[in-house]
Amino acid sequence: MTMVDFNEHLPAQQILTASLLTVNLPRPPKRFFRHGWQSWSLAAWTDLTPLPIQKPYILHPLQVDPVYAKETRPHSSWVGAVEMESGKVLLLGSLGLDTHVFLKGGQLEGKYESGDGEWFIAHGDEAAVFSKYAVELGKRFGTKTNKPAPRIWCSWYSLYTAIDEPLLFQVFDDLGDLPFDVLQVDDGWQISIGEWEANSKFPSGMTALADKIKSTGRKAGLWLAPLIAVKSSKLFREHADWFLRDARGRFVSAGHNWGEQLYALDTTHPAVIEWLAKLMKQVRAWGFDYLKLDFLYGGALPGKRHQDIPREAAHRLAMKVMREAMGNDAYFLACGAPIIPSLGLCDALRVGPDVAGFWEDHRDAVLLYNPTTPSTKNAIRTTLNRFWLNPLVQIDPDVAYFRSVECSLSPEQKSLLQDWALICNFKATSDLPQWLTKSERRQLQDFLKASPSIEQLGPYIFQIDNREVDFCSVLPLPNQPTGLDVFSSKSLGWLSNHGWALKVHNEMNKKAFKKNKAAMAKSK
Ligand code: 9PG
């Protein structure tokens, strides 16, 4: 174990090699910076009181690092920081994979899951220490690719899984001259999670879908979740031996979604590597040049692998194989992905949870204490706290909303989200052209064409051209339940841990998606 004291002799920045590194703090800090493991996991400054364990537990593999999901002391993936009384920040960040940082009493502790590796320690101004950390990460993992950030229309946040060929073809036509570079088809086109072929809602097939998009003068984009599968898929039925198991031989859970249990591929298995490469080539051959690869945490879950390598190295292996197979000329957006192990291997990285047509959901925020589920506040909060990753990868804050249909965001909340997209320089929306009023369509048009000058004035305040925008309203974490909510929280926590309850919830969601679709047909 290596130990350093945080006192006046500690260099402003240094790199040490250790498997376990402890920094002794002279006084208890004011705040702790925690950085969630993957795209959707929370990144935020928090106080030092134990954080409630987010619910439902059944979703831990899909929302946080399952290894540390039940740790209530302040802790963080790869990098943690403390703010001292003086306002100065001490950052402890690893320059390797499979690492975790804890605040234990008066000590900041960094730990490699196996072996040892480098640690970066710096103190000073918050912005300066994070930017120096990013420089060191960049040297080891790579920095931003020099592709221009495309402007994307994505089918998810309006139609969800209720997409089909006639509907999408209609949308693509109706987008008219809106200056999008990519039209991206999201979840809902595939036979199942694991079977990446067109389902019966796309009778003309995937090449026809890509061709239709290309005929509008844009690039075709496609969503896939290549590292996970459901048990009912052909992939799982035919190749159960390709899936990740624990030391006792049981399949490792990759969480629960679409009303089904998810499983993860063992990306060190030679047949899996071959399959992944073939899939990427297939998708390119169909004509898709923009790939949103999602649920990528599946490659880094803990388990016993065919090749005995650390879990995040296994994730990088899968990322490399997919990147190489799709070719460097494809645009690769990684989503639901462990953050540091994805650097240098993708063009863009989702750095927060999903946005939604609402600000915050009381059930998820307060009753389940879950900051990773879709909500505009959750999305801006986590992405703001990951803005320091900007020099390393194109950061994706998720889509912005311009519509009033199927959206309860206030005009101020919508502007905040749009401004945040301008700052991140990642412009996307799912708004259906049919849903936009004339003035909303004009706003979208202006947004897509804009290239404002951006200056960061403070951790959460930016200047966009001559406007100052303050994002502090997204920062507060939900209050813990009180009164009747304590009871509701307990019962909901219990209920939501059951697969059948999530299945019922999924069916209700699907109904709502179909309602959206019907609303669209009516608005024609
Ligand atoms: C398609 C979607 C969209 C979206 C992705 C991802 O349970 N969860 O916590 C959870 C979080 C995000 C999520 C799905 C489930 O969404 O981020 O943009 O592509 O998949 O299914």
Structure commentary:
- This protein is α/β, with parallel strands linked by helices and 524 residues long.
- 31% of the residues lie in helices and 23% in strands.
- It folds into 3 domains: 2-141, Immunoglobulin-like; 146-345, Aldolase class I (TIM Barrel), CATH 3.20.20; 347-480, TIM Barrel.
- The protein has 14 helices and 27 strands.
- The strands form 6 sheets. It has an 8-stranded parallel β-sheet.
- α7 runs parallel beside α8 (311-326).
- Bound molecules: 4-nitrophenyl alpha-D-galactopyranoside.
Brief characterization of the structure:
The chain has 524 residues and is an alpha/beta fold. The chain has 14 helices and 27 strands.
List keywords for this structure.
524 residues; alpha/beta; Immunoglobulin-like; TIM Barrel; 3 domains; six-stranded antiparallel β-sheet; 14 helices; globular; binds 4-nitrophenyl alpha-D-galactopyranoside
**Number of separate structural domains:** 3
List unreliable stretches of 5+ residues.
none
Q: Please state the overall shape, judged from the principal axes of the Cα atoms.
A: globular
Tell me the β content: 15-25%
Number of strands: 27
| CATH domain fold name of the largest domain | TIM Barrel
Radius of gyration: 22 Å
Count of DSSP H/I helices: 14
Sheet having the most strands: 8 strands, parallel
The rounded distance between the terminal residues' Cα atoms is: 67 Å
State the secondary-structure class: alpha/beta
- Look at the structure and name the CATH superfamily of the largest domain: Aldolase class I
Residue-averaged pLDDT? 95
Q: What is the spatial order of strands in the main beta sheet?
A: 23-22-21-20-16-13-12-24
> Mind telling me which CATH architecture of the largest domain this is?
Alpha-Beta Barrel
Report the helical percentage. 25-40%
The level-1 CATH class of the largest domain:
Alpha Beta
Ligand catalogue: 4-nitrophenyl alpha-D-galactopyranoside
